From TrEMBL, chains A, B:
This protein's name: TetR/AcrR family transcriptional regulator
Organism encoding this protein: Allokutzneria multivorans
Superkingdom, natural source: Bacteria
PROSITE patterns membership: HTH_TETR_2
Pfam families in the record: TetR_C_46 (PF21943), TetR_N (PF00440)
Annotated transmembrane regions: none
Phylogenetic classification of the source organism: Bacteria, Bacillati, Actinomycetota, Actinomycetes, Pseudonocardiales
Residue ranges for the DNA-binding region feature of this UniProt entry: 44-63
Domain HTH tetR-type: residue ranges: 21-81
Keyword Transcription regulation on entry: yes
DNA sequence: AGGCTTACCTACTGATGAGTAAGACTACTT
DNA sequence: AAGTAGTCTTACTCATCAGTAGGTAAGCCT
């Protein structure tokens, strides 16, 4: 009991028998909680099993090693995030609107799934570990999505000028800005997802050059969702 | 010898006697190398002592615990980075020029001091550890610097419109974008610092809105340094 | 009923790694 | 030359934690 426990449930000894699929989900849920709070290295399998309300060998039987467990967390949460965003981006809309929707979806997801986002974000800089592949893949997919959007934007307006360099680094920069804002959000939880999304639009769509001149970005459509 | 060694120097047994100040620098140098490559948790004090070419108890005698050692690394490298940037930002210049110079200084520093930057960046998402204070402080200082710049920019042009929200989150977003670009740079080392800085200006000063219209940012002054 | 599968457990092993005890060598003082 | 302050080492201790061996019990078939 030297460290503060991760808040929450424990089940009494000899847990009820449950089908494997259910336990696997419970274990993954617990793992996301623990990994998001402690980070990969500082998290222990004992704590995961404790939070999951099950004994350690079950985790090994079902999910494999610590690394595999972590990779499974990453995969699951990355997929959820990407589907959240992918669900609202319609290629027929104009780029500005697509970007707005995607960005808003991102902050909405983060607001509603802090642990999911944290587990993805906290280990983001990790290299050399086997699960780095999962991390890199998730990031690559996100960047590719935005990059494609920017490419279409450049094409649509008939201007290749800003794609000259490739849009990929700019997409990477945008995700970085999004992550940093999400981090800032943790210390200012009173802000709405919409306000956060608006900030990112102001930076990424308008740029400081416009902002300095008093031209700020704001959602020009009717309010979408909360 | 299961893991690949951090490249480089070893000294023969019974190291030459050297004054404390010198050893402390050597230890910090080694620690930055190891921490930047492995991350805080995966780094071992044995490896640090090995790379430093000195025995472990010396590290404890001079720099204290692993956490204190890491904090010392963070402090030193953060200071170097901030001084690099602070050195080129002249408050009398207009904001655009200041931003350009600061951003260029950042990428120049990162290019010349990959380890320094990595040690600052890799653990950026860490919370709850004692050294998190150092990390947070470094970040806070960087954000404050940019934030102040933006405030002056807003004031100078006589427009408070974009400071309405506060500039702080935007400054945080900018640093995040910078970090992400620096990360991308690792996979594209052929790019020059200037090209990287230009990308960040395109995103943060012009914004996608302008870029889509074919209006890109470029340094309008004479070439600064390589 | 007996048998088989699957869920579940306690209690270990073995490795790694932070931190230290206790002393040895060197050089500078007086 | 003897003391002493500071540098440096080998060789431990001790805690933590990933992973496992070897079992118990619950349900589900005949």
């Amino acid at each position: 009991m030297t460290k503060k426990d991760v808040a929450g449930a424990r089940t009494p000894p000899r847990a009820k028998r449950l089908p494997r699929a259910v336990r696997e989900r419970q274990i993954l849920d617990a793992a996301v909680r623990v990994f998001s709070e402690r980070g990969y290295h500082a998290a222990s399998m004992d704590e995961v099993s404790d939070v999951a309300g099950i004994s350690k060998p079950m985790i090994y039987a079902y999910l494999g090693s610590k690394e595999e467990l972590f990779a499974a967390c990453i995969r699951r949460e990355a997929t959820r995030l990407m589907e959240s965003i992918g669900g609202v981006v319609d290629v027929n809309l104009d780029p500005e609107e697509q970007l707005w929707r995607g960005v808003l979806a991102f902050f909405t997801f983060v607001g509603e799934n802090r642990d999911s986002w944290q587990v993805l974000h906290r280990q983001a800089g990790t290299q050399g570990a086997p699960f780095a592949a999962e991390l890199a893949e998730g990031r690559r997919a996100a960047v590719a999505m935005i990059s494609a959007l920017l490419d279409r934007a450049a094409g649509k307006e008939g201007v290749g000028a800003f794609a000259e360099g490739q849009t990929e680094p700019l997409a990477a920069a945008l995700t970085g800005a999004g992550e940093a804002l999400a981090e800032w959000w943790l210390e200012h939880p009173e802000e709405s997802p919409k306000a956060m999304a608006r900030r990112l639009m102001n930076l990424s769509w308008m740029g400081f050059g416009n902002l300095v001149l008093g031209r700020a970005w704001h959602p020009d459509k009717q309010p979408e969702t909360a």
